Amino acid sequence: MLDLISIGDATLDTFVKINDASVMCTLEKEVCMLCLNYADKIPIARLDQKVAGNACNVATGGARLGLKTAFYSIVGNDDIGKRVTRAMKSEGVSLKYVEVDKGRPSNYSVVLNYKSERTILVYHHPRHYKMPKLEPANWIYYTSIGANHESLERSILKYLRTTHPRPHLAFNPGTHQLRKGLSRLRDVLRMTTVLFVNKEEAEGLVGRAGDMKGLLDRLKETGPEISVITDGDKGSFVHNGGEYWYMPIYPVKVIEKTGAGDSFAIGFVGALAHGKKLHEALQWGTANSASVVTKIGPQPGLLTVAGIQQMTRKYKKIKPKKI
Questions:
Q1: Which terminus in the chain has less CB density within 10 A, N or C?
Q2: Could you tell me the pLDDT band of residue 24, with boundaries at 50, 70 and 90?
């Protein structure tokens, strides 16, 4: 029996560090734009390529945390697809559910890194998603995937209903899923054990609330057992219907933020899979995320259990707080 099956897209990310740019924000500083000189040649300070994609990152993170992990995705029959499968195999992730689309190339993203913040240019190749017959698993992690994913989503829900004991579902919706709106996500949310969204995504789903507890309440009302909201440098918040917890971030030197959310989520899920309590899961997620942002790319900084324990000891004075 598997501990975790991660479902979503995989990509190859090209990380482009730039210095010649500027940022323009609204007066409230809630909406900002990265600005480059139009029709100009922009010098690049550094260029890196890394295997990535939300589901791919989570599968790697789960394997490093000692979970028996598999990965469902569709890759192209090209060099990128081969890089993805090699990387997953090297991490000990099962590839039994990975499909090769011989008619289309693999997904690709360009990550513009300016002053440690990232802006991502994403292209998902059109796919025909069809979930293979999955073996029983303790956790399903369903995350960002391309358009035309509705039949896959129905298959996931059927799998959850018919598998005994019923797997836990961790849901981190991506752009295509969020654009469907709350009404189209309700069936998934009602079967979700843990929902992961950032503050902007949460407000996009349920509207603004007076404070973070109110926003957590609104998310909880949509169906998930546990609602988690990440809010960048302000930390993370969780509500399970009874308790509300807040966790500050660790004061690490940030190099590049791609994968911060994925690493937090798999740290959180990994803690629950290892029998940890809710506030401890916040610590695991925070530690994993803190490590990832000190490296370029979403996977090099993913921690083992020992690495998370070392990180939490290092920042032992920074603890979750009930709110």
A1: N
A2: confident
